[in-house]
Amino acid sequence: MRIFVVGGAGYVGSHCVRRLIAGGHEVTVYDNLCAGHRQAIDPQATFVEGDLGDPVQLDGVFEAGRFDAAMHFAAFINVGESVTAPLKYWHNNVANTLNLLQCMEAHGVKRFIFSSTCAVHGEPEDLPITEDLAIKPINPYGNTKAAVEWMLQDSAEAWGLGSVALRYFNASGAAEDGTIGEDHHPETHLIPLVLQVPLGQREQIKVFGTDYPTPDGTCVRDYIHVNDLAQAHLLAVEDCPAGKAEAYNVGTGNGVSVLEIITAAREVTGHPIPALTTDRRPGDPPTLYADAGKIRHRYGWEPRYRDVRELIETAWRWHKGHPHGFADK
Ligand SMILES: NC(=O)c1ccc[n+]([C@@H]2O[C@H](COP(=O)([O-])OP(=O)(O)OC[C@H]3O[C@@H](n4cnc5c(N)ncnc54)[C@H](O)[C@@H]3O)[C@@H](O)[C@H]2O)c1
Q1: 63, burial (CB in 10 Å: exposed 0-12, middle 13-18, buried 19+)
Q2: ∠321-322-327 over CA atoms, to 5°?
Q3: Residue 153 has what DSSP assignment?
Q4: Which fold has domain 175-221+253-290+305-328?
Q5: Active site residues
Q6: What is the model's pLDDT at position 176?
Q7: pLDDT digits (tens, 9 = 90+) for 42-71
Q8: Could you give the CA distance from residue 189 to residue 231 in angstroms, rounded to a whole number?
């Protein structure tokens, strides 16, 4: 297939592009590099530097590309910033997605894979999180992702768009060969922050809250390896439902606490990684983990990285080789 990938220079997108190319697909990466990295783009992909907010350029790329499918990773991703600057998030994550969908409709491209998030469920009433729990985001970031999922449902009805929204849990890890990995500015994700300590870039790691109703009192999350996410994208695009909007959780189903991540990172790096416990942050649900039964049954997808140490080993290989991220490439 010829696949248009917007956001293919970013963290998850760059790993997915590799997987698509290894799977025999032709990929065009479209990215404005506002958060992505030119060095992260697979050299076998065609790269077009462009913004989703530019419908004229988008139209030209679709005219030339004759795509069979589109994958959409391009969004602003910082939950905290979305609370203080919600319109920035509605603009990029929703209005710009509207541009893309209008362009796809105009060019008759009817396969779409969307990067959604478990944040569409907010603080879920039940665990593990299944796809049919209420959609009740608790911040503007989650609202924008839910809004796009609704656009996809309406588009399926009206013009036959087939789409898969993959609701990621905590994307983590890096390519096995250590050549691409996570490089966000600012970094807000736990594993790269923890690894900044053995890199000598941070003295200690802060643990926000040790009195949650969890086994060790710290928050529990579901860490899913970026290569497992990439495999889910490959399966979804190759067998995209016709004229229907579907949504799948992509997580391991295992909850791992903040302290367990720190302990695993100590084992992997051999560094003591001092931790400083401090108060809870507002808006952190105690426990989030997936029921991934739906994607397992539909696509035969299975996470390969079940042990969080193996996942951290891949992240460590990347960060150790590139302590300043892609600036070191
Ligand atoms: N990282 C996670 O843990 C996680 C969890 C759940 C969902 N997601 C979703 O997955 C997607 C990818 O996340 P990521 O961590 O790889 O983010 P990222 O910031 O690393 O990648 C996003 C990419 O999109 C590009 N981009 C943003 N706006 C654009 C625009 N208007 N036009 C063109 N390109 C644009 C950026 O330059 C960047 O390369 C996002 O949609 C995010 O909401 C991520």
Answers
A1: exposed
A2: 150
A3: H
A4: UDP-galactose 4-epimerase; domain 1 (3.90.25)
A5: 141
A6: 98
A7: 999 999 999 999 999 999 999 999 999 999
A8: 22
The domains of the chain are located at: 2-171+223-250, 175-221+253-290+305-328
| Equal CATH topology for 2-171+223-250 and 175-221+253-290+305-328 | no
- For atom 27 of ligand 1, the residue with the nearest CA is 74
Q: Do strands 256-257 and 220-221 pair parallel, antiparallel, or not at all (unpaired)?
A: antiparallel
State the pLDDT confidence band at 329, using cuts at 50, 70 and 90: confident
Ligand 1, pocket residues at CB < 6 Å: 6-7, 9-13, 31-36, 51-53, 73-75, 77, 92, 96, 115, 117, 168, 170-171, 184
Residue closest by Cα to atom 9 of ligand 1? 115
Of 116, 131, 113, whose CA–CA distance to 235 is shortest? 113
Distance CA 18, CA 192 (A): 21
Looking from the CA of residue 14, the nearest atom of ligand 1 is 16
Residue type for 208, please? F
User: With a threshold of 0.90, does the pTM exceed it?
Assistant: yes
- Alpha carbon distance 179, 86 (integer Å): 34
Alpha carbons 225 and 230: distance in angstroms, whole number: 9
Q: Taking the CA of residue 156 as centre, how many other CA atoms within 13 Å lie in the half-sphere pointing to its CB? A: 20
Q: What is the average per-residue pLDDT within 34-41? A: 98
The residue-averaged pLDDT of 90-118 equals 98
Domain 2-171+223-250, architecture per CATH: 3-Layer(aba) Sandwich (3.40)
